[in-house]
Amino acid sequence: MKNILIFCGIILLIYVVYRVYKYQTLDEGLDKLIKNGAIILDVRTEKEFEMGHISGSQNISLGEIRERYIELDKNKTYITVCSHGLRSVKVEHILKEKGFKKVYNGGACSDLQKSLDLK
What we know:
It is built from six helices and four strands.
């Protein structure tokens, strides 16, 4: 019983840390970047993307980004999104390692879509 409570506590802590991180890293100016031509890079799988995505977004999954990043223009601005925000953080870091300067984590695509709809 004690182990189950410890496990649940750890899961809860991870979730809280994730939510705090998400709100701290979600840039308030993403809508302005999009209006200025930023490209939304959806890093979910092709099947997830086909089930629904932000209009105009480009799809390169986390699993393909290390091979396909050469399709992207290092001079453009990218906002990475996925279903919960974890894969988008990974792709943001991968692209920055590859020399991209203007990459921002947009978090969960549903959250970004809602914030864009409200503006």
